[in-house]
Design a protein that fits this description.
The chain is an alpha/beta fold. The chain is built from five helices and twelve strands. The two termini are 17 Å apart.
Length: 243
Protein backbone atom coordinates (compact mmCIF):
# COMPACT_ATOMS: atom_id res chain seq x y z
CA UNK A 1 0.00 0.00 0.00
CA UNK A 2 2.68 2.63 0.82
CA UNK A 3 4.43 1.98 -2.51
CA UNK A 4 1.20 2.19 -4.49
CA UNK A 5 0.07 5.35 -2.69
CA UNK A 6 3.44 6.96 -3.34
CA UNK A 7 3.34 6.04 -7.03
CA UNK A 8 -0.26 6.96 -7.86
CA UNK A 9 -1.25 9.47 -5.14
CA UNK A 10 -4.93 8.42 -5.35
CA UNK A 11 -7.77 10.65 -4.19
CA UNK A 12 -9.77 7.61 -3.07
CA UNK A 13 -8.96 4.02 -2.15
CA UNK A 14 -11.78 1.48 -2.03
CA UNK A 15 -11.44 -2.19 -1.07
CA UNK A 16 -13.79 -5.16 -1.04
CA UNK A 17 -13.51 -6.66 2.44
CA UNK A 18 -16.03 -9.51 2.46
CA UNK A 19 -13.32 -12.20 2.78
CA UNK A 20 -10.98 -10.35 5.10
CA UNK A 21 -11.79 -12.36 8.27
CA UNK A 22 -10.12 -15.66 7.30
CA UNK A 23 -12.22 -15.81 4.15
CA UNK A 24 -15.60 -15.18 5.75
CA UNK A 25 -16.90 -11.69 6.41
CA UNK A 26 -15.19 -8.89 8.30
CA UNK A 27 -14.68 -7.84 11.91
CA UNK A 28 -14.61 -4.40 13.49
CA UNK A 29 -10.89 -4.81 14.24
CA UNK A 30 -10.06 -5.68 10.63
CA UNK A 31 -12.18 -2.81 9.31
CA UNK A 32 -10.28 -0.38 11.56
CA UNK A 33 -6.96 -1.78 10.33
CA UNK A 34 -7.99 -1.25 6.71
CA UNK A 35 -9.12 2.31 7.39
CA UNK A 36 -5.84 3.00 9.18
CA UNK A 37 -3.96 1.91 6.04
CA UNK A 38 -5.68 4.68 4.09
CA UNK A 39 -8.67 2.83 2.65
CA UNK A 40 -11.60 5.22 2.65
CA UNK A 41 -14.45 2.79 2.00
CA UNK A 42 -15.08 -0.96 2.18
CA UNK A 43 -17.59 -2.89 0.08
CA UNK A 44 -18.90 -6.38 0.83
CA UNK A 45 -20.58 -9.32 -0.94
CA UNK A 46 -22.15 -12.73 -0.37
CA UNK A 47 -20.09 -13.27 2.82
CA UNK A 48 -21.27 -9.99 4.35
CA UNK A 49 -22.83 -11.77 7.33
CA UNK A 50 -20.09 -14.42 7.63
CA UNK A 51 -18.82 -12.95 10.90
CA UNK A 52 -21.42 -11.96 13.49
CA UNK A 53 -19.23 -9.06 14.65
CA UNK A 54 -20.51 -7.02 11.70
CA UNK A 55 -23.95 -6.66 13.29
CA UNK A 56 -22.35 -4.65 16.09
CA UNK A 57 -20.98 -1.86 13.90
CA UNK A 58 -22.32 -1.86 10.32
CA UNK A 59 -25.13 0.59 11.11
CA UNK A 60 -22.69 3.02 12.74
CA UNK A 61 -19.92 2.87 10.12
CA UNK A 62 -20.89 4.79 6.95
CA UNK A 63 -17.63 3.84 5.22
CA UNK A 64 -18.66 0.16 5.19
CA UNK A 65 -21.43 -0.80 2.78
CA UNK A 66 -23.05 -4.11 1.82
CA UNK A 67 -24.89 -5.08 -1.38
CA UNK A 68 -27.82 -2.78 -1.95
CA UNK A 69 -30.14 -5.53 -3.21
CA UNK A 70 -30.36 -7.50 0.02
CA UNK A 71 -33.93 -7.77 1.29
CA UNK A 72 -35.42 -4.58 2.78
CA UNK A 73 -34.80 -4.17 6.49
CA UNK A 74 -31.31 -5.69 6.50
CA UNK A 75 -28.67 -3.85 8.58
CA UNK A 76 -26.37 -1.38 6.85
CA UNK A 77 -26.64 0.48 3.56
CA UNK A 78 -25.74 -0.36 -0.01
CA UNK A 79 -24.32 3.00 -1.00
CA UNK A 80 -22.37 5.92 0.40
CA UNK A 81 -20.59 9.10 -0.60
CA UNK A 82 -16.97 9.60 0.45
CA UNK A 83 -15.13 12.91 0.27
CA UNK A 84 -11.56 14.15 0.00
CA UNK A 85 -11.42 17.92 0.17
CA UNK A 86 -13.74 19.23 -2.52
CA UNK A 87 -13.78 15.91 -4.35
CA UNK A 88 -16.50 13.33 -3.75
CA UNK A 89 -17.13 9.79 -4.91
CA UNK A 90 -20.47 8.01 -4.90
CA UNK A 91 -20.07 4.32 -4.13
CA UNK A 92 -22.63 1.58 -4.81
CA UNK A 93 -22.28 -2.08 -3.82
CA UNK A 94 -24.54 -4.60 -5.58
CA UNK A 95 -24.60 -8.39 -5.84
CA UNK A 96 -25.52 -10.60 -8.77
CA UNK A 97 -28.19 -13.31 -8.94
CA UNK A 98 -26.82 -15.81 -11.46
CA UNK A 99 -25.36 -18.84 -9.60
CA UNK A 100 -25.78 -16.87 -6.37
CA UNK A 101 -28.31 -16.85 -3.54
CA UNK A 102 -31.69 -15.22 -4.30
CA UNK A 103 -31.53 -11.42 -4.27
CA UNK A 104 -33.57 -8.47 -5.43
CA UNK A 105 -32.98 -7.36 -9.02
CA UNK A 106 -29.48 -5.79 -9.14
CA UNK A 107 -30.27 -3.75 -12.24
CA UNK A 108 -33.35 -2.07 -10.78
CA UNK A 109 -31.55 -1.60 -7.44
CA UNK A 110 -28.72 0.35 -9.09
CA UNK A 111 -31.22 2.35 -11.15
CA UNK A 112 -33.05 3.41 -7.99
CA UNK A 113 -29.92 4.96 -6.46
CA UNK A 114 -28.84 6.63 -9.69
CA UNK A 115 -32.34 8.08 -10.07
CA UNK A 116 -32.19 9.33 -6.49
CA UNK A 117 -28.82 10.99 -7.02
CA UNK A 118 -30.16 12.41 -10.30
CA UNK A 119 -26.83 13.66 -11.60
CA UNK A 120 -25.89 15.41 -8.34
CA UNK A 121 -22.92 13.04 -7.89
CA UNK A 122 -20.62 13.18 -10.92
CA UNK A 123 -18.07 10.52 -9.97
CA UNK A 124 -19.62 7.13 -9.16
CA UNK A 125 -18.01 3.73 -8.63
CA UNK A 126 -20.00 0.48 -8.65
CA UNK A 127 -18.68 -2.75 -7.09
CA UNK A 128 -20.66 -5.55 -8.76
CA UNK A 129 -20.11 -8.70 -6.72
CA UNK A 130 -21.21 -11.46 -9.08
CA UNK A 131 -20.34 -14.96 -10.28
CA UNK A 132 -21.32 -14.92 -13.96
CA UNK A 133 -19.19 -12.94 -16.38
CA UNK A 134 -22.23 -12.44 -18.61
CA UNK A 135 -24.13 -10.76 -15.77
CA UNK A 136 -21.17 -8.50 -15.00
CA UNK A 137 -20.71 -7.49 -18.63
CA UNK A 138 -24.45 -6.85 -18.95
CA UNK A 139 -24.37 -4.57 -15.92
CA UNK A 140 -21.47 -2.70 -17.48
CA UNK A 141 -23.53 -1.93 -20.56
CA UNK A 142 -26.55 -1.13 -18.39
CA UNK A 143 -24.77 1.66 -16.49
CA UNK A 144 -22.45 2.89 -19.25
CA UNK A 145 -22.51 6.68 -19.24
CA UNK A 146 -24.33 6.84 -15.90
CA UNK A 147 -21.45 5.87 -13.61
CA UNK A 148 -17.73 6.54 -13.81
CA UNK A 149 -16.61 2.95 -13.29
CA UNK A 150 -17.91 -0.52 -12.58
CA UNK A 151 -15.51 -3.04 -11.06
CA UNK A 152 -16.37 -6.72 -10.74
CA UNK A 153 -15.50 -8.71 -7.63
CA UNK A 154 -16.16 -12.22 -6.22
CA UNK A 155 -14.40 -14.60 -8.63
CA UNK A 156 -10.95 -13.64 -7.24
CA UNK A 157 -9.07 -13.96 -10.58
CA UNK A 158 -8.10 -10.70 -12.27
CA UNK A 159 -9.46 -10.45 -15.80
CA UNK A 160 -7.64 -8.79 -18.69
CA UNK A 161 -10.69 -7.11 -20.21
CA UNK A 162 -10.31 -3.65 -18.71
CA UNK A 163 -11.66 -0.96 -21.04
CA UNK A 164 -13.49 2.34 -21.28
CA UNK A 165 -17.01 1.72 -22.58
CA UNK A 166 -18.34 4.02 -25.35
CA UNK A 167 -20.15 6.43 -22.99
CA UNK A 168 -17.17 6.86 -20.66
CA UNK A 169 -17.57 4.16 -17.99
CA UNK A 170 -14.46 2.20 -16.99
CA UNK A 171 -15.08 -1.54 -16.78
CA UNK A 172 -13.30 -4.71 -15.67
CA UNK A 173 -15.02 -8.06 -15.09
CA UNK A 174 -12.98 -8.89 -11.99
CA UNK A 175 -10.39 -6.79 -10.20
CA UNK A 176 -8.74 -9.88 -8.68
CA UNK A 177 -7.90 -10.83 -5.11
CA UNK A 178 -5.51 -9.83 -2.37
CA UNK A 179 -4.26 -12.93 -0.56
CA UNK A 180 -2.30 -16.15 -0.96
CA UNK A 181 -1.11 -16.88 -4.48
CA UNK A 182 -0.58 -20.64 -4.49
CA UNK A 183 -3.83 -21.89 -2.96
CA UNK A 184 -7.24 -22.11 -4.63
CA UNK A 185 -8.88 -18.68 -4.49
CA UNK A 186 -6.92 -18.04 -1.32
CA UNK A 187 -7.68 -21.35 0.40
CA UNK A 188 -5.33 -24.28 1.06
CA UNK A 189 -5.45 -26.33 -2.10
CA UNK A 190 -5.40 -29.76 -0.42
CA UNK A 191 -8.83 -29.23 1.15
CA UNK A 192 -10.30 -27.88 -2.07
CA UNK A 193 -8.87 -30.76 -4.10
CA UNK A 194 -10.31 -33.25 -1.61
CA UNK A 195 -13.79 -31.81 -2.05
CA UNK A 196 -13.56 -31.83 -5.85
CA UNK A 197 -12.18 -35.38 -5.99
CA UNK A 198 -14.44 -37.02 -3.40
CA UNK A 199 -17.42 -34.64 -2.92
CA UNK A 200 -16.95 -35.15 0.83
CA UNK A 201 -17.31 -32.18 3.19
CA UNK A 202 -14.03 -30.35 3.59
CA UNK A 203 -13.06 -27.45 5.85
CA UNK A 204 -11.46 -24.65 3.86
CA UNK A 205 -8.60 -22.82 5.57
CA UNK A 206 -6.83 -19.71 4.29
CA UNK A 207 -3.50 -20.63 2.72
CA UNK A 208 -0.28 -19.21 4.16
CA UNK A 209 1.77 -19.16 0.96
CA UNK A 210 3.24 -16.20 -0.90
CA UNK A 211 0.87 -13.29 -1.35
CA UNK A 212 -0.53 -11.53 -4.39
CA UNK A 213 -2.09 -8.08 -4.65
CA UNK A 214 -4.51 -7.11 -7.43
CA UNK A 215 -6.18 -3.76 -7.98
CA UNK A 216 -7.05 -1.18 -10.61
CA UNK A 217 -6.22 2.50 -10.82
CA UNK A 218 -8.89 4.58 -12.55
CA UNK A 219 -8.48 8.18 -13.72
CA UNK A 220 -11.65 10.28 -13.82
CA UNK A 221 -12.58 13.66 -15.21
CA UNK A 222 -13.78 15.63 -12.17
CA UNK A 223 -16.22 17.72 -14.18
CA UNK A 224 -17.97 15.11 -16.30
CA UNK A 225 -17.30 12.05 -14.16
CA UNK A 226 -16.24 10.11 -17.25
CA UNK A 227 -13.30 7.74 -17.00
CA UNK A 228 -10.15 8.62 -18.87
CA UNK A 229 -8.07 5.51 -18.13
CA UNK A 230 -8.20 2.20 -16.28
CA UNK A 231 -5.02 0.29 -15.50
CA UNK A 232 -4.52 -3.11 -13.91
CA UNK A 233 -2.18 -3.42 -10.93
CA UNK A 234 -0.58 -6.78 -10.13
CA UNK A 235 1.96 -7.12 -7.33
CA UNK A 236 3.44 -10.40 -6.11
CA UNK A 237 5.55 -11.10 -3.06
CA UNK A 238 8.63 -11.97 -5.11
CA UNK A 239 8.15 -9.76 -8.18
CA UNK A 240 6.52 -6.54 -9.39
CA UNK A 241 4.39 -6.30 -12.52
CA UNK A 242 2.44 -3.30 -13.83
CA UNK A 243 0.24 -3.63 -16.89
Amino acid sequence: MPRLKSKYNPDFIVANGENSAAGRGITHKIARELFEQGIQAITMGNHTWGNKDIFEFIDDEPRLIRPINYSPGMPGKGYTIIRNGKKELGLINVIGRTYMQPMDDPFRSVDAILDDWNGKIKCILVDFHAEATSEKISMGWHVDGRVSAIVGTHTHVQTHDERILPEGTAYVTDVGMVGPRDGVLGMEREAVLLKFRTELPSRFIVDEGKWQFHAVIIELDDVSGRSQNIQLIRQFEDEWILE
